[in-house]
């Protein structure tokens, strides 16, 4: 049911968001969604926390770009639409080699190893300029590829539909994977590798095969990016990119299949839109990440799923005033904090220029105490009520949650008399 | 030519640093025999189980399954050869439902390997086996409950179900009724007895009533050595056993 | 000849600093099961705080105060954040420390800026601790401090005199790390707290049941680990660079050391730190061609990772780690 709806949404999105910038954003979201889903295949389903997942996406991108250039020059036939698949095969091949080393260990060791492998590959980018193109990277032109059925994929709209198709198919395949024996065993290995061994399966082999699949899909994501940006450079395998996959998948929610989808959308929103709005976006992201890990471990998808569960048992409506009040307090306090942070950043980064600047239409002056007092005032105006409200709302929430889980019907539905 | 014993332990030793935990254990369990391994705490029973199931490497000696040496094999290889074991502390898959837990355990023996080409929903033989297994351990009503939400006794039942799922003919049970009260233990013992008909059973237990109910033969392990092996009456009457374990005047 | 000695000394000093960092990480991991991704961030904080303190009160004050300050910050983080996540498992703990590393990086850049800082050692430590002087005819000699003027000037190159100074900052690194090692060893083996810590390394529940305040112990240990990292930061920041990227570059090296040495093994970390320190220093110093078009020096940054790769394939548990399974 969900899948046809998604397909329709993807087809109709350009009608709502026309214009090449919006379409570019949507394409990037598709790329990020596939990458985050492949990351979560390892993390959410397999319990394998990888700090170097960008390696497979990036290397896939390099393979795809080289394939595009080679076949554009006429050495064989490869339609542009299949370029991401080359990326996928490249990613899988790298996973076959590097994954053999990393899946020898699990848990924290695996995390550290993936970090080390990521740095190794990044170090290699300067040592192999032929493949990695040095500082400039490898460029290509998707229009140079063979034209099939009149589609050159030069126009943004054509590329969008191609990438949307890849996104949908990859997501569907990864979803079906969770319903296969290997997919189920991967989750079993996440829960209890020792027990998996005692039912006849080698947990290391399960992890390795999962790594191959994740590398394949990550490579496809890299190939999609190669087509979209028409350039791949060392940043694609860097630790910042790997960290982004991790951060946004966790923010979206790793326990839910829809989590990485939300995470991919969030990734593009933050890295493209938020970063343009404020210099402090990494700090906000860091704080947000820590808050989510501590207070909402299921991520955004987890929170939404919980609300749906509450709604089903009729316990959501009574909580809405709480949510509204807390949201209002949080907004005011955050506003004050943001003002203070923006002023600090302005002082640091633009020490030479004037002390006054505009932020979201407001004029702030780091030299004037008025601006600082406003920030402090807003923080207190939102923060103090929050401190009073939160315990009460939290207690109500806990009650509602417990009741919805035990299946108790609310008094209204039971009928009185 | 007599068939080899289902499970044979030959001069098994295990040393941890300077401490010898298993000091030369010889044990033969014939096919279809049901042996209970009893002994005081610290006698080395769990270590012995770990040696048999491949979770620990012996310092010396051999373990044989149906006459074939399984010493040094990985636990998953031993499981594939037809030896299944349960754990003293419930060792299930907490984030999977009861149905999914049991289905995992039947997959290998049905030959599905590491495949991604079949959807679980389409595996009808797995479904049938899992349903039968759920029925056997009495968890059909909890099919969709996550294992982590099960009460203790039901988790032990699930543990048993996973152990039996592969259809192995040699079954090792490590204190299956640990932590249960009288009635739960009695019910669970009946469950074990009906579920392991015809199988070779090696059972570690502290509860003598369970032992009497399930086992034809008792082996007594004290300080890493088997000091007695025989029918329950003979073992109970053995003065060495009485002195070491059961106490006088039992 | 003095090339080997100098390289060995440099490699040893770098290796010892790696050990300073990885020891704290290993202790926190062994006791709390949490891999502290922000460990290198404490290193960076130590360097930056050390810089500011040194600016006001001198280097030696910084050497004492910066680790204390960071230790307190670390303990606070454990108390307020990490403890809350403890019940959720090891992965959320790792993620929280990962988030912390990003927040610390941003805050450091916010307060101290994005360019490298000029963190200098006091005049006492500038210049060589000792110099190896190689006379063509007379062989190798050691001169404390810098040799008298004129001994090492270019004109003497014709006479076959070459000098290899060993910087005093590196000597400080060696002294501080060895002292730290000795103090930790003494604390762990000879004090009651140390005894409790060692017990808690393998049997935390039991220690808790015996009446020792395990959460408080965790907080103290986490703070101690942070302080050690900060101490390494003060020394490392003044010897090498103090810049925002120092946490990432050092952090990765520490992880490689821990993987190669075997997670959870202090002795393994020690062996691996020295091995990697020597390997990398030697590679950078020996500017010989290794592969077509690539000298060993250019390969140097990648060498520790290659070593890690080999270790994983041949011996996954590391040099001295516990056997798997």
Give an overview in words.
The complex is a heterotrimer of chains A (417), B (250) and C (325). Chain A has helices at 2-16, 20-43, 54-72, 83-102, 107-127, 129-132, 156-177, 181-191, 193-198, 203-229, 239-252, 258-277, 281-295, 299-312, 320-349, 369-406, 411-414, and strands at residues 138-139, 231-232, 356-359, 362-365. Chain A is an all-alpha fold. Chain A is globular, with a radius of gyration of 24 Å. The two termini of chain A are 40 Å apart. Chain B has a single domain (7-246), classed as P-loop containing nucleotide triphosphate hydrolases (Rossmann fold), CATH 3.40.50. Helix content of chain B is 35%, strand content 24%. In chain B, β4 (60-65) and β5 (68-69) form a beta hairpin. In chain B, α3 packs parallel to α5 and α5 (152-165) runs parallel beside α6 (182-195). The longest helix of chain B has 14 residues, at 124-137. Chain C has a domain at 2-121 and 169-243. Chain C has helices at residues 2-32, 39-57, 59-86, 90-112, 168-190, 192-202, 204-209, 214-239, 246-261, 266-285, 296-299, 303-314, and strands spanning 128-135, 139-144, 161-167, 289-291, 294-295. In chain C, a hairpin with a 3-residue loop joins β1 (128-135) and β2 (139-144). The radius of gyration of chain C is 21 Å and the shape is globular. The model of chain C has no long low-confidence stretch (mean pLDDT 83). At the A-C interface, α4, α5, α11, α13 and α15 of A face α3, α4, α9 and α12 of C.
The N- to C-terminal Cα distance of chain B equals 41 Å
The largest sheet of chain C, given as strand count, sense and whether it forms a barrel, is:
3 strands, antiparallel
Beta percentage of chain C is 5-15%
Summing up helix and strand content along with how strands pair, one would put the structural category of chain C as mainly alpha
| Estimated radius of gyration of chain B | 18 Å
Strand order of the largest sheet of chain C: 2-1-3
The average pLDDT value of chain B, as a whole number, equals 88
CATH T-level topology of chain B: Rossmann fold
Number of domains of chain B: 1
